[in-house]
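Bench notes, afternoon.
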Amino acid sequence: MVFGVAGVPTHYKGKLSGLFPWLEGMGLNGLEIQCTYGFKMSEENKKIYKEKSSDGFFLSMHAPYYINLGSLNNQVVQRSKSNMKEGIELAKSIGATRIIFHPGGGHENTENGRKIAINQLIDAVNEFTSEIDMGNVRLYPEIGGKTASLGSLDEIIEICKKCKYCYPCIDIAHLHAREIGSITSKEILKSKLNKIKDAIPDKFEQIHFHAYTINYGDKGEIKHLYFGDSMPDGKEGMPNLIDFIDVLKDMKINPWVISEALDSQELSAKFMHDLYVK
């Protein structure tokens, strides 16, 4: 099992080398490196990450948000393919095994428009992964948080069905938000996970989760919530993380869970870890 954080938590003050014992002291063993501004990293940090992954600490990487393999602009797609190749080489060099990426946008938000964009993404992924040695690196298209963005549950399943190296990143908060508050019970969440399991059973065992609570509106995601915070209207923050962990245990899922709680990801990750091992 892996429970970890997205990026360096704001509560941590110190050098990168000290981050790992700090996380391990809370029972955490995973870090999702945030490559927001590109797949760039100093040689010193590469060495630190490589040493930790060699010691059994689990590393994933989140691709830059400007990568858009679903764009209708061919130049954007070509740049995105090149960027992803750079990311794969970086991941291999530091021992990270998973690259999370957003499917993208810029498509016509109709059934046909979305289908065209997803098919284009699938072709792009299959093309660049055939041109590079993937090593142990796998790609994880992520559920999109906004209703208009690519990355519905069905679209993530479709990508993973048709791309050899793609596996599902199920951001349960994004799923809840884009479906305007759909995950209100353990039974509903379990049904969604069973849908993935039935559709791509060979890849379900390597599923990747983002878990935290979220504020949303009629267009989907508005803002990640601080761990324990309520919605602006006073309602409980959802999706319920206790229910999430119960479902993981009920379904006997050996999880890789990354918390993206606002400025409190280590608190949320520790909470989920402790529930899971209890």
